[in-house]
C-alpha cells in the first residue's frame, strides 16, 4: 500500500499533471463565460432575428408533448458555443506555436534567404544517413567524411 501511495504522489507532483489541472480549471471557467455569452446574448438575438420576442419563437421550438420541445435555438446556441471555444483554443495553440518558433535562431545567407538544416545524405545512393555516420546504412559505402547536417536555403 505504501508503494501505491508513493507512486500516486510521484504522479501528482509531475509538472505536466499540474499544468493539465490548471488548464482544465481555466477551460471550465472559460466555458462558463462563453456559455453565459451564448445563452444570454447570442441566443436571444437569434430569437429576435427569427421573429420571436427575445425569449422564445415558435419556429425554433417544436412541441413534441405536453411539456417537451425540440429546441433548435438551444442546439444553435450549443454549436455557436462550441465554435467560439474551438476558435479560441485554435488561437491559443497558434500563438504558442509562433512563440515556440520565435525562440529558434533564424540564420540567413548573404542574399537574405532563411537557411534551414538539411539531414546528411550519402553521396553514392543519395539516401539520408544518421548524423556522425561514417558508413551508409543503405548501400554500405564508406563515407568520405563523418556525416553532418548542412544549412540550405528554405524552399
Compact overview of the structure:
The chain is mostly helical and 155 residues long.
Helices and strands: which structural class?
mainly alpha
Number of continuous helical runs:
3
Backbone shape: elongated
Question: Helical proportion?
Answer: 40-55%
Largest sheet: 3 strands, antiparallel
Instruction: Give me the count of strands.
Output: 5
Radius of gyration, in angstroms, nearest whole number: 29 Å
* Low-confidence residue ranges: none
**Strand residue percentage:** 5-15%
- What is the succession of H and E elements? HHEEHEEE
Give, in spatial order, the strands making up the sheet with the most strands: 3-4-5
Q: How confident is the prediction overall: mean pLDDT?
A: 81
End-to-end span in angstroms?
58 Å
How would you summarize the topology of this molecule?
Blueprint: H1 2-13, H2 15-49, E1 61-63, E2 69-71, H3 72-102, E3 107-108, E4 114-118, E5 150-153
Antiparallel strand pairs: 1-2, 3-4, 4-5
Structural notes for this entry:
The chain is mainly alpha-helical and 155 residues long. 50% of the residues lie in helices and 11% in strands. It is built from three helices and five strands; from the N terminus they run ααββαβββ. The chain has helices spanning 2-13, 15-49, 72-102, and strands at residues 61-63, 69-71, 107-108, 114-118, 150-153. The strands form two sheets. It has a three-stranded antiparallel sheet, with no helix packed on it. Helix 2 (15-49) crosses helix 3. The longest helix is centred in the N-terminal third of the chain and has 35 residues, at 15-49. The chain is elongated, with a radius of gyration of 29 Å. The relative contact order is 0.07. The mean pLDDT is 81.
Amino acid at each position: 500500500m505504501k508503494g501505491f501511495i508513493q507512486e500516486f504522489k510521484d504522479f501528482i507532483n509531475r509538472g505536466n499533471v499540474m499544468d493539465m489541472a490548471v488548464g482544465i480549471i481555466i477551460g471550465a471557467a472559460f466555458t462558463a463565460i462563453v456559455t453565459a455569452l451564448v445563452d444570454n446574448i447570442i441566443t436571444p438575438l437569434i430569437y429576435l432575428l427569427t421573429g420571436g420576442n427575445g425569449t422564445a419563437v415558435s419556429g425554433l421550438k417544436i412541441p413534441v408533448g405536453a411539456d417537451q420541445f425540440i429546441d433548435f435555438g438551444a442546439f444553435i446556441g450549443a454549436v455557436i458555443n462550441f465554435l467560439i471555444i474551438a476558435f479560441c483554443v485554435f488561437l491559443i495553440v497558434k500563438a504558442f506555436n509562433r512563440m515556440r518558433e520565435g525562440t529558434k535562431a533564424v540564420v540567413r545567407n548573404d542574399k537574405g534567404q532563411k537557411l534551414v538544416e538539411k539531414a546528411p545524405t550519402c553521396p553514392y545512393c543519395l539516401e539520408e544517413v544518421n548524423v556522425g555516420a561514417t558508413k551508409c546504412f543503405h548501400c554500405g559505402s564508406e563515407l568520405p567524411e563523418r556525416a553532418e547536417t548542412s544549412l540550405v536555403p528554405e524552399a
